Structure formats: C-alpha cells, structure tokens
Amino acid sequence: MASSKLSAFAMAMVLSALLIATIDMVNASNLDVWSGPGCNNRADRYIACGCHDIDPGLHGGWAFSYNGPPAFMYNQANCRGVSVRKLSRGARDCNPFPWQSMFIQC
C-alpha cells in the first residue's frame, strides 16, 4: 500500500513538472525570421531558451514576440562576442539584419 501511494505521488510530481514546462513554452518569447524580401517567403521560429544560430538563408526580416524572457542578438555564430541588441518588447523589422545568433534568457 505504501509503495502505491509513493508511485501515485511520483506520478503526480512528474505530471506537475511536465505541466510547468508546457506552460513555460507557451509563455516563452520567440523570434520569427524570414528569407525575404522583407517578412515574406520561407520562415522559421526560434522559441526555446538558450543560444540559437539563425539560418543564414533567413535574414530578410524579423519579428520578436516578447512574453517575458528577453533575447540578446549577436553578429557572430554561437552567441560569441558581445550582444549587439537586447529585445525586451515586441518588435518587427522587415529589412535585412546582420545577426547570426540569438540567446533567449529564461
């Protein structure tokens, strides 16, 4: 009986952790990038926390949806060097951009 209560408790903890992780993903900030010209054609979305290299073919335009975590933009791959811009509110620019990578801080 004690082991079944422990198993039920463990299962409840796992489900709680999954629910929290899902809520965090729904509330995460994200960056959409397009191949261009402008904010058109092929696109990709970067949503997970951490560093992301931006596809070199997707520098025609961008839109950032701010939902809490800010993003830091880098002109070098792998988030190397110094961040050249911090995105901490919603923004959009349908012109080419130089960023090679981004870091979503969570």
From TrEMBL:
UniProt keyword Metal-binding present: no
* A Pfam family per the record: MiAMP1
Q: Name one GO biological process term.
A: negative regulation of growth
Q: Which UniProt keywords apply?
A: Signal
User: Please, which domain of life does this record's source organism belong to?
Assistant: Eukaryota
Cross-referenced Gene3D superfamilies: 2.60.20.30
Key word Metal-binding present: no
Q: Where in this chain does the entry annotate a coiled-coil region?
A: none
Signal peptide range equals: 1-28
The name this protein carries in UniProt is Antimicrobial peptide 1
